[in-house]
Design brief:
The chain is an alpha+beta fold. It is about 15% helix and about 60% strand. The strands form 2 sheets. It has a 10-stranded antiparallel beta barrel with strand order 1-4-5-7-8-9-10-11-12-13. It has a 3-stranded antiparallel β-sheet with strand order 3-2-6, with no helix packed on it. Helix 1 runs antiparallel to helix 2. The protein is elongated, with a radius of gyration of 30 Å. About 5% of the residues have low confidence.
């Protein structure tokens, strides 16, 4: 946790330090601008007369009211901006088939697969940037926090067994025919599965905002990005019958990775009336890092809730170097207004989509015709997709 929070804290300190060091430079440039404007006014007065020059200046100032800001650069404060975002996202990172319903001979019916994945969950993003006093340039950093979980279960009764429906684990060993502590064959009757995802991201960027027209501005940016991913699935299968209640087959798998690399893109803003505007954003990244995968499975034959070495028949770990391209998209509507001389408020509501290609691995049952006799589980490369709504509040100081 400290490792993940260290980079965001360093980024915030760097932006604040840069802002304080550059404040004097911006103040001096503003003084020079004021002197240049005063000289222009004096020139107008000499050429047109005092009354006509004052009218021209009043007209220029009046055109800025009410205080809806141009999209290129808020005319407030020292140049610091803070943003906070509420995220309501869905992810596919832990989608996993954990069970099948098939007949007594082990022929699984793929139309009766049971899946577990993470549901819609909450997250947040915090960011800080500084508008440089150099022709629309800015630097910034942001941190994204997202956690998600999900669960699923299925039960097959003895009456359903009699009708020809049996429960089989998708990821591992078929228990049918194995003897339990009472000497009876084990028949699995209940399965439950859980999925969890932890996602953290830190972005660093520098960009330049360009005003294309009176209503349209575009900002190109580039920088670095780091993401941390931790995804887990856990599955438990329990036998039918009072004599062997609690006997379970258990399987768990996890993906852990830290990816880092470069990121670039652009965002655009189309200014509408009454402070409203349309916003869009597109970014791409190229990240690298190691993906660590692990899986463990076994039967709790003594029903003590712990898999010992004798009860474990699968315990694997692997690490692989990955190159992960990333894609980010955003679109929505914003409203802004200058509420104080040194403070501008901007709110945004929209939709975000991110896809990190090949960032994960999923366990899939590679089913032959006879499922019970020869069940294989294989790792398959999978994308990490995050998408959902976002609500953002931005303050310019």
């Amino acid at each position: 946790m400290l490792k993940r929070l260290g980079l965001p804290l360093l980024a915030v300190l760097a932006v604040c330090s840069f802002a304080l060091n550059a404040a004097d430079t911006e103040i001096e440039q503003l003084k020079q601008m004021i002197r240049a404007q005063n000289a222009k006014i004096e020139k107008l007065e000499r050429a047109q007369g005092s009354s006509q020059a004052s009218a021209a200046v009043d007209k220029a100032v009046g055109s800025r009211h009410p205080c809806y800001l141009a999209p290129d650069r808020p005319d407030v404060g020292v140049g610091l901006s803070f943003k906070g975002e509420y995220l309501y996202w869905k992810s596919n990172a832990s989608q996993n088939t954990y069970a099948y319903l098939g007949d007594v001979d082990g022929f699984a019916n793929l139309g009766h697969a049971r899946d577990v994945d993470t549901g819609w969950s909450h997250g947040f993003r915090l960011g800080l940037d500084y508008r440089l006093p150099y022709d629309g340039w800015n630097i910034g950093a942001d941190y994204t926090y997202y956690r998600a979980d999900g669960e699923s279960s299925v039960t097959v009764t003895p009456a359903e067994n009699a009708a020809g429906t049996y429960l089989y684990p998708a990821n591992g060993f078929n228990a049918t025919g194995l003897e339990g502590p009472a000497g009876a064959d084990i028949v699995l009757g209940h399965a439950k599965a859980t999925a969890d995802l932890d996602f953290d991201r830190v972005n660093f960027e520098i960009g330049r905002n360009t005003k294309i027209s009176e209503t349209l501005s575009v900002r190109f940016f580039g920088g670095g990005s780091v993401i941390w991913v931790d995804a887990k699935t856990q599955e438990s299968f329990y036998a039918q019958g009072v004599a062997i209640d609690g006997l379970g087959y258990h399987h768990s798998a996890s993906d852990k990775a830290t990816y880092y690399g470069i990121r670039a893109g652009l965002d655009a803003e189309m200014k509408l009336k009454y402070g409203f505007s349309l916003l869009g954003k597109a970014a791409g990244s190229m990240l690298v890092g190691d993906l660590e995968t692990s899986a463990i499975a076994g039967f709790d034959l003594n029903v003590d809730g712990v898999l010992t070495r004798d009860e474990t028949y699968g315990d694997t770990k692997n690490s692989a170097y990955r190159v992960v391209p990333g894609l980010e998209l955003e679109a929505g509507v914003a409203w802004e207004r200058k509420i104080l001389d040194g403070l501008n408020l901007k709110v945004f509501a929209g939709y975000q989509f991110s896809d990190y290609i090949g960032a994960m691995e999923r366990l899939d049952a590679d089913l032959p015709n006879n499922f019970a006799a020869n069940n294989r589980v294989v790792n398959r490369e999978s994308d990490l997709v995050l998408h959902g709504v976002v609500f953002r509040v931005k303050l310019d100081f």
